[in-house]
Write a structure and sequence with these properties.
five-stranded antiparallel β-sheet; 15 helices; 17 strands; single chain; about 25% helix; alpha+beta; globular; about 575 residues
């Protein structure tokens, strides 16, 4: 988030003038490359302003604030707020222009408030001007009329969005002369983190917030690094490990003395070293995003998949180059083709998706979904944007299921998670699916399609997070707090469309079971088997080559059949 706010403050050609901008602001981050432009982050001050919890906000379009009950269908006429203001925002953002408007919004429970919204589109990739995010700032003008610092000549306002809820002084990233650094006010600390810090610091959160001692702030940063699901590590462009956060050390079961200064070859699978070193070497000459996926050797418990992404960092005044990564352990499902066959196999009119258990968001979808759902999944047009502007990844599953069927689907997901670790197989849930069928002036109309959701019982993640560290490796913050037992983080769901719907043929037949070509005893993700001797990149490339050869053979057979039919007709 620091990088996001820094981009807002340092954008080259601002069209509206923002006042001070920092973490105490009420703001949301919207990913415009995902379907329906969902919120991917909401600041604690925004949650306090609106009364919603984070899990009620993330994954939804901002328009839910425009009705007392939070139910505003995409493309619908606005009945509870000014439609002209909504139109102005939509038109501006469609052309990637900054905008500001007054809107009547509603808190959770239906209480109205007058919201002065400022929205700033920003790119993310250093080598591209493509807009990736919209950053929206909010302030309640009824309770904070003094937030307006100045009226500009074009009719917009310079607004003090900073520290609205805490009443503290502004610590600006944006306008000069408004202070420096980050303000950590009461509103910017969540209830859960406040409780954690109360157990760690003798004086609780008051000691942290009222003290100028950098030691306490260092304790907070250390706690966040330790307890985050993501781990942070720094590599030189030659593959030397320069830093590893406590969470990574715990996953790999090493102490910092055993890991820092070592080469990646000491922990990485030998077959994975070549693509790693190639990526690191290429990163030294560009600011492109570096992605690594490799098998790492734990000290006691064998191999584990690590996935990381990061960028090159140059220390000011020095020539030393490092790549700062954030990453996670990637659990590879042990699902076998036998379970798929018993659940009905695979068909033509279907797609697969992985759903986050915690948020209900679609975090991955198979390629056929772009035809089945009339949306694109990761395929870009020549302009670099998702074709049709839609992507299922990042969409809440709840938004894809009709309201009356959602509770059944939700219960099925809960039962599949309960069965994790004690059983295997699948749970089949019938439901109606929403598919965009027609674009109108007010947005997309939807068609309801009978669908079977096959929820495969997930594997439990590895339990290394629960293993206590030796006394010599604990600190004041790691010894106080332990993470919860491992639980499934995601569900793999197979969506079988039963109604006759297809992009290429509106009256295509329902999903029909195809003959299984795999051995029922083999794993669905056998190329990512952690004990496999070859590299996964090589395996994927080989699969691509096989698929291309099969496509050529099929095309040749079709041409031969068509030629025969034409000759018989003559």
């Amino acid at each position: 988030m620091m990088g996001i706010l820094a981009r807002v403050a340092s954008r080259p050609n601002p069209q509206i003038v923002l006042g001070p901008v920092d973490f105490s602001c009420s703001f949301v981050l919207v990913d415009v490359r995902r379907y329906d432009h969902p919120i991917v982050y909401a600041s604690p001050t925004f949650l306090k302003l609106t009364g919603y919890e984070a899990n009620e906000v993330v994954g939804r379009n901002c328009r839910f604030l425009q009705a007392p009950d939070g139910n505003v269908p995409r493309g619908s006429q606005r009945a509870y707020t000014d439609p002209d203001a909504v139109g102005h925002i939509n038109k501006s953002l469609l052309h990637n222009k900054e905008c500001q408007a007054n809107l009547m919004n509603y808190r959770k429970g239906g209480q109205p408030f007058l919201n002065l919204v400022s929205i700033v589109p920003i790119p993310w990739d250093a080598d591209s001007d493509e807009i990736r995010y919209h950053v929206g700032f909010q302030v309640d003008l009824v309770h904070q009329p003094n937030a307006i610092l100045q009226t500009m000549k074009d009719g917009t306002y310079m607004v003090n969005y900073s520290s609205m809820m805490s009443g503290g002084p502004a610590a600006g990233l944006g306008a000069p002369g408004h202070g420096r650094g980050l303000l950590m006010g009461q509103s910017s600390i969540s209830k859960e983190l406040r409780e954690v810090m109360a157990d760690i610091l003798p004086g609780g959160m008051n000691e942290l917030e009222n003290s100028s001692d950098e030691k306490n702030r260092h304790e907070l940063n250390a706690l966040l690094l330790d307890q985050s699901d993501d781990f942070v590590h720094v590599l030189s462009v030659k593959g030397i490990i320069q830093y590893a956060s406590p969470s990574l050390l715990r996953v790999l079961e090493y102490t910092s003395e055993e890991l820092i200064g070592k080469h990646l070859s000491d922990i990485a699978h030998p077959q994975d070293l070549t693509p790693i070193t190639r990526e690191l070497k290429e990163s030294s000459t560009s600011q492109k995003l570096v992605r690594l996926l490799f098998r790492a050797r734990r000290k006691h418990s064998g191999m584990v998949w690590l996935e990381s992404s990061g960028r090159l960092h140059l220390e000011p005044g020095k020539t030393r180059k490092s790549v700062v990564f954030g990453g996670r352990v990637r659990e590879i499902s042990k699902l076998r083709w036998n379970d798929v066959d018993l659940a009905g196999g695979v068909g033509d009119n279907e797609f697969w998706a992985k759903i986050s258990v915690g948020t209900g968001l679609v975090v991955w979808a198979s390629e056929p979904s772009k035809e089945v759902l009339r949306r694109q999944v990761g395929e870009k047009s020549k302009e670099g944007r998702d074709e049709e502007g839609n992507a299922i990844i990042g969409t809440r599953l709840k938004d894809l299921i009709v309201d009356q069927d959602w509770e059944v689907v939700k219960k099925g997901m809960e039962n599949a998670c309960i069965a994790a670790g004690v059983g295997e197989g699948s749970i089949i849930v019938p439901a109606k699916f929403r598919i965009p069928s027609k674009e109108t002036e007010y947005g997309a109309q939807h068609t309801e399609v009978e669908t079977e959701l096959v929820m495969y019982v997930p594997d439990l993640p590895m339990g290394t997070y629960d293993k206590p560290l030796p006394p010599s490796e604990t600190t004041s913050y790691t010894s106080t707090l332990r993470l919860a037992p491992p639980k499934p983080s995601s569900l793999l769901i197979q969506f079988r469309l039963k109604s006759p719907v297809s992009l290429s043929s509106p009256r295509a037949p329902p999903s029909k079971k195809r003959k299984l070509v795999h051995s029922t005893s083999s794993a669905v993700y056998e190329e990512l088997d952690i004990s496999r001797a070859s590299n996964w990149c090589y395996e994927v490339e080989r699969v691509k080559q096989v698929n291309e050869r099969m496509k050529g053979e099929i095309a040749a057979l079709e041409n031969s059949m068509n030629s025969r039919l034409r000759s018989e007709t003559v």
